[in-house]
Target: Putative manganese efflux pump MntP
Amino acid sequence: MLSASAHVGQVVTILIMAVALGMDALSLGVGIGMKGIRLRDMLRISTVIGFFHILMPLLGMFTGHYMSSLLGYVTTYFAGGLLILLGGHMVYSSFKGDGVQVLDHRSPLGLLLFALGVSVDSFSVGVSLGMFQSDLVLSVLAFGFCGGAMAMLGLLLGRKVSRNLGDYGEAVGGAILLAFGFMFMF
Model:
């Protein structure tokens, strides 16, 4: 049984981790928001990201300690690769004009890949939390809420910035995703 001060410390630690994991969603939401996005799509994206911020640490917690050393590197490269793919596609389509949008955030595949790319780092955190006896419900709910809320904030900010950048908004948003993808990879 945890003492009151230990419980408060655990809650604060979980909230700090939730905000830190949500920073990716915020930053990458700005990149997607720069494409120009409707409020309905913003709600859908932030909800899916919130769900993945619950699912991924939960899966990580259940995966266990023996897999963490192998999957820690794989998930980072996978997330980086997804973000490079999405960012490269956004930059390419911004200069090419209106073409076929294979990884559009409005398509189920594009939304899934974006949410997975933003949330995959929480899998590794979940593996780490699984080794400790942290509060499972509090952890995944805090991660989900922060991920979804920060994604929504990023999408709103990106949409606002995109109005000022005009046609270059999608290219700038793609460059942001590319930069984060390369940061994950290297």
Summary: The chain has seven helices and no strands. The CA atoms of residues 31 and 176 lie 6 Å apart. The radius of gyration is 17 Å. The chain has a mean pLDDT of 76.
